[in-house]
Design brief:
By secondary structure, the chain is mostly beta strands. It has a single domain, classed as Distorted Sandwich (Deoxyuridine 5'-Triphosphate Nucleotidohydrolase, Chain A). Helix content is about 5%, strand content about 35%. It has one helix and eleven strands; from the N terminus they run E-E-E-E-E-E-H-E-E-E-E-E. The protein has one helix spanning about 65-70; strands at about 5, 25, 35, 40-45, 45-50, 55-60, 70-75, 80, 90-95, 100, 105-115. A four-stranded antiparallel beta sheet has the order 2-11-6-8, with no helix packed on it. Strands 4-9-7 form a three-stranded antiparallel beta sheet.
């Protein structure tokens, strides 16, 4: 699948291994950005994409940054919709206990392209029963 992309600095999202589902996104900064513990900030990537209808770009945290430095995404997983044409920016949060500095070119997040279905709701009076039923959080034990 090919997707149109514009990059302000000539950097492209890239798969780091053959089996990678996500492409690393790099920060596009004129100056370093410091994120203190508990702070959140929006980091630009310099990337603009044109997704076809029926696809989204999911922006996810990098596991290494999360476990080693406590850096995550404010909204858990971000969604870039197919009709969005603005710059991709990453909402980072410092869950850690130490200041974290983002430099230009740092790999700050990963992007996964996913297909989705649009639905229409079908109102009904009853739903089909299952063995699980309404068993919720923790219903299967530990």
């Amino acid at each position: 699948m090919e997707i149109k992309i514009r990059s302000e600095r000539g950097r492209m999202p890239s798969y780091e291994t053959e089996g990678s589902a996500g492409m690393d996104l790099q920060a596009s900064l004129d100056a370093p950005v410091v994120i203190n513990p508990g702070e959140r900030t929006l980091i630009p990537t310099g990337l603009f994409i044109e997704l076809p209808p029926g696809y989204e770009a999911q922006i996810r945290a990098r596991s290494g940054l999360a476990i080693k430095k406590g850096i995550g995404l404010v909204n858990g997983v971000g969604t870039i919709d197919s009709d969005y044409r603005g710059e991709i920016k990453v909402a980072l949060i410092n869950w850690g206990q130490e200041t974290f500095t983002v430099q230009d070119g740092d790999r700050i997040a990963q992007m996964v392209i996913a297909k989705y279905e649009r639905i229409t709701w079908q109102p009904v009076a009853r739903l089909q029963q299952t063995e699980r039923g309404d068993g919720g959080f923790g219903h299967t034990g530990i």
